[in-house]
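Here is the promised in-class demo. Please do not try to memorize the tokens; focus on the logic of going from shape to residues.
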């Protein structure tokens, strides 16, 4: 279920550390990016990001997915 759109959004969130930052960079509504990330997490059954007050950082599963996306 990893569509090219979901992969793009996921990678940009990982790079920026925030959904808002990714949204600004991609000129997409933050809600659309958040929806894709949540759907991806639900489909895979794991959290891909740790959500903290400083932003989002990839979990161990997120790091593995980043490597796969970048290949």
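The designed amino acids, position by position:
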């Amino acid at each position: 279920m990893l569509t090219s759109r979901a992969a793009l959004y996921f990678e940009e969130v990982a790079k920026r550390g925030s959904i808002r930052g990714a949204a600004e960079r991609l000129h997409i509504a933050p809600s659309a990016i958040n929806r894709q990330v949540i759907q991806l997490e639900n489909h895979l059954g794991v959290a891909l990001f740790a959500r903290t007050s400083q932003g989002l950082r990839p979990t161990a599963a997120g790091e593995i997915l980043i490597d796969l996306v970048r290949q």
